[in-house]
Amino acid sequence: MILNKNTASKVAEYLLQVKAIKLNVEEPFTWASGIKSPIYCDNRVILSYPVIRTYIRQQLAELTLEAYGKPDIIAGVATGGIAVGALVAQELDMPFAYVRSQAKAHGLQNMIEGVMEKGRTVVLIEDLISTGGSSIQAVKAVKENGNQVKGVISIMDYGFQKAIDNFENECTFYSLCNFDVLIETALEKEFITKENYDSLLKWKMSV
């Protein structure tokens, strides 16, 4: 869910400009899950552009406060949410930790890296939410650590029903931008044609 359409449109334009998001209806990308997709998102590209990185950092911090108030800890979800989460924590002058996708196989076998004392409130930061699987895994790890998860904030989400279903019994989530605003902006700024737009919308409805 997004809270500000103007912000979402600006984020979409930035992501398209630096090719953090690529759209290709004719030659779809293959996701790790095996899904054939006309969209590919790598928000780590943002880190290479100081102006965009600053804007995303500031907007994620504002969205965190608007949606959840100030938590005790900001936590990134590995791996894409680690750098962005650290930026948000810095913007808010708050402690930061991150949650691994699985417990470390050696040493202390940590699932959570950094200091996260029990009984603290936590907001998790993601770069992208597709089905929500990795986010929910991180949410559960933080809860099992004895903490309260206020919610999840991401740069982008695809708006899949599966993600909404996955989050339903765990927590809420908000994003700076979503799939619908992205393709609307892509059409308006002539990154895609109307035919491409219709195909992208149809694909989203089929997933």
What does this structure look like?
This protein has about 210 residues and is of the alpha/beta class. It has a single domain, classed as Rossmann fold (3-Layer(aba) Sandwich). About 40% of the residues lie in helices and about 20% in strands. The protein has 7 helices and 10 strands. It has a 6-stranded mixed beta sheet with strand order 7-6-5-8-9-10. Strands 1-4 form a two-stranded antiparallel sheet. It is globular and about 50 Å long. The model has no long low-confidence stretch (mean pLDDT about 95).
Short description:
By secondary structure, the chain is of the alpha/beta class. The chain contains 7 helices and 10 strands. The chain has one domain (5-206): Rossmann fold, CATH 3.40.50.
Q: Which architecture per CATH?
A: 3-Layer(aba) Sandwich
Helix content: 40-55%
In angstroms, what is the radius of gyration?
A: 17 Å
> How many β strands by DSSP?
10
